[in-house]
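@channel sequence for tomorrow's demo:
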Amino acid sequence: MTRAALPTSFETGALVRNLEGQAEGYRRLATLGQREFEGLLGGRSEDLSVLLAEQEATIQQLQELERERLTLLGPVAEAWQAPAAEIRLSALEPLVPTAGAARLRALRTELSDVVAALGELNGRNRRLLISAAHILERWRGYMTASMLPSSIYSAKGDLTGPSGPRALDQAA
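structure tokens (generated this afternoon):
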């Protein structure tokens, strides 16, 4: 979406500051994601609770910044007759002063890189959590099976349940 001009009410500096805030927020999420991975590996659930609260607060800040970005792009959206959410930095770059265009380009690259890294971190953490959940479920099954009596008898003394070895001995 390339347009001929930006409206005079558009503030490149405000958009740059907003995007810098977003880049900082995404870098913070990536750092928290790495700490989450380390906490998962170390089995420190108390650390994970604190990290989750920090992640939620950061995500809320990013949501506020995104709403602000859309507001900042409002004059452009109106002039271009396009939704603000569909206006790309690459469409703005050729229309802003040289220094602003260079900073927008750098921020676009930085945001793309950090969001890609965050996606990889989230995928790795998700796989680790799923693996841990499977292991816990397997152990729960072992523990449940070990608590069943090896033989179950009816009131008449007939064997009605399984007999034989169990995964874990109750005396252990």
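heads up for whoever presents: The radius of gyration is 28 Å.
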